[in-house]
Write a structure and sequence with these properties.
This protein is mainly alpha-helical. Helix content is 85%, strand content 0%. The protein contains 16 helices and no strands. Helix 1 (13-45) packs antiparallel against helix 8, helix 2 packs antiparallel against helix 3 (88-115) and helix 12 packs parallel to helix 16. The radius of gyration is 21 Å and the shape is globular. The termini are far apart. It comes from Bacteroides intestinalis.
Length: 450
């Protein structure tokens, strides 16, 4: 397994960011492709009802992924700073504790949700009509969530260990396996949504095992370290995990934003437009993780550079890295917005035939929905910066703004004013308000310093 040697304190920050960004972006998009590929095959093999059923299940997966991102981001920040101070053993212990923790917190609720699958499907908002498909998808998909959370955490660590290309390959292999198995299970074998769930589970298992093998046997610095079985060791582990979670809490809130967006959006679309509305929103929701992962890739590419130099006190390198990250966020946001505004029919047609009701609703809504993507990506990058320099409070507050404080009221109020158009504009309005708050906070801090 090839590893790159990357000096985070001396190499030009633009070169460093480029080395991290392109493999990270490709890897992130590949991970998002796992559920999107399910949607494409289910859309053509089952129909818009299958897409709606899968979309109802996805918010729970987002929560699990969010826990992984929270621990992964926190662990990566802590390990970066420890490495910059030469504390290799402490960095390894933090990595081991993080992976053990996420294993426990994913296995226990997964088992409970499989036992109570009916209640879980109802809790997620399944209608009587969609309930059988939602249950079927859950029962075959839930076992993979432990592998998903392993991947979410370990990719942070693998990149920090100097192997961003390996992190990218781990995600690419997962996506490729999923494509092959989705086609096999849905079309030749005709297993429908169950086939899509089983394909995702097997592909995520492959990616998770690759990541674990690397960290156990091949990591250059951040390989697993044995934990002592003592009360003192347990207390130390709890303290370290708590600190990692506190630093990475905004990453969990970022993923929770997607879960809230999908969950509340499903309820509002069901109320105003029925099952076809949920189907239309479901098509849109397959693209949201891609946009999220663009912002996440920018934040995660900047994070090891910022955190390592933060540990050394190199303020200029930190500022330069954040300028590059924000510029990249704006450029990427403009490109994504243009694609959704100019090519909605093409994007919807990847999932379903464009002549049905759900497809027509999605085509009409895409241009409105995409207005917020520039702000969406910029906000993720800004929150990632605060997280990287251990400024937990602003990172958490702004994550709460975009995910709860502005988003939920927007979903409840805008449809009453603008009708169906208001549902599509809820996310953009929330992101614009959050971006304005971040800009105001930045100007206030700058004025205070002067």
């Amino acid at each position: 397994m090839k590893r790159d040697t990357i000096d985070l304190s001396k190499v030009n920050v633009f070169t460093l960011f480029s080395k991290y960004f392109f493999p990270t972006l490709l890897g992130m998009l590949s991970m998002s492709a796992v559920t999107a590929i399910d949607g494409i095959f289910v859309g053509h093999g089952v129909g818009s009802d299958g897409i709606a059923a899968i979309n109802i299940c996805i918010p729970m997966l987002m929560i699990f992924t969010g826990v992984g991102l929270m621990v992964g981001a926190g662990c990566s920040v802590v390990a970066s700073i420890l490495l910059s101070k030469g504390k290799l053993k402490a960095a390894r212990l933090n990595v081991t504790q993080a992976m053990l923790f996420v294993t426990i917190v994913s296995v226990v609720p997964s088992v409970l949700m499989m036992i109570f699958s009916d209640a879980t499907a109802r809790m997620l908002g399944a209608s009587d009509y969609l309930l059988p498909m939602v249950k079927e998808y859950l029962l075959w998909f839930i076992p993979s969530w432990v592998f998903q959370i392993w991947i979410s955490v370990s990719l942070f660590i693998i990149r920090l260990d100097g192997a961003p290309k390996l992190a990218m390959l781990c995600s690419l292999i997962t996506a490729i396996v999923n494509i092959v198995l989705d086609w096999l299970f849905i079309f030749p074998l005709g297993w429908g949504v169950m086939g899509a769930a089983f394909a995702s589970s097997l592909s995520l298992a492959v990616g998770g095992v690759i990541a674990i093998i690397y960290l156990a046997f091949h990591a250059r610095q951040l390989r697993f370290h044995p934990l002592k079985m003592s009360v003192t060791s347990l207390k130390l582990s709890i303290r370290n995990i708590s600190y990692q979670c506190r630093i990475g809490s905004s990453a969990l809130l970022g993923e929770a934003t997607l879960a809230v967006l999908m969950f509340v959006g499903n309820q509002v679309f069901m109320r105003y437009l029925g099952d076809n509305g949920v189907g239309a929103f479901g098509i849109t929701c397959y693209y949201i993780p891609f946009v999220f992962m663009v912002g996440n890739a920018i934040a995660q590419s900047a994070q090891p550079i910022i955190s390592y130099n933060f540990g050394l006190g190199y303020k200029k390198r930190i500022a330069d890295t954040e300028k590059i990250a924000l510029t990249t966020a704006i450029v990427c946001g403009v490109i994504v917005t243009a694609a959704f505004s100019l090519c909605p029919k093409l994007l919807v047609g990847l999932f379903v035939e464009t002549d049905n009701t759900a497809a027509r609703l999605a085509i009409a809504g895409f241009p409105y929905f995409s207005v917020g993507f520039v702000f969406f990506i910029v906000n993720l990058s800004a929150v990632g910066y605060f997280q990287s320099v251990e400024r937990v409070k602003p990172a958490t507050i702004f994550a709460l703004f975009r995910g709860f404080i502005f988003l939920i009221p927007s979903f409840l109020i805008l449809p009453q004013i603008l009708g169906a158009t208001g549902i599509w504009l809820a996310m953009p309005f929330s992101e614009i308000l959050t971006c304005a708050c971040i800009a105001a906070f930045y100007l206030f801090c700058k004025w205070n310093v002067k």
